[in-house]
Design goal:
Layout: H1 3-26, H2 30-65
Helix pairs in contact: 1-2
InterPro entries: CsbD, YjbJ_sf
Family: Belongs to the UPF0337 (CsbD) family.
Protein name: CsbD family protein
Length: about 70
């Protein structure tokens, strides 16, 4: 799986979370609002993992260059 695919998945999860959170808030549905917050946290974790993968890949390229 490419890193671009991972980044798109994280962005999708973030948007999905924001929509759920707002929908839950405006419909006074605490469960949906909480699911949205959970999705946003999941997206943040995905983003951090992707960033770590980028750093790892850059490091590998640098090591192999020398």
């Amino acid at each position: 799986m490419s890193n671009t695919t991972d980044k798109v998945k994280a962005a999708y999860t973030k948007v999905k979370g924001e929509v759920k959170e707002k929908a839950g808030y405006y419909t006074d549905n605490a469960e949906t609002e909480a699911e949205g917050k959970k999705d946003k946290i999941k997206a943040k974790v995905q983003e951090n993992v992707n960033e770590a993968k980028d750093v790892r890949d850059d490091f590998k390229k640098k090591i192999n260059k020398d």
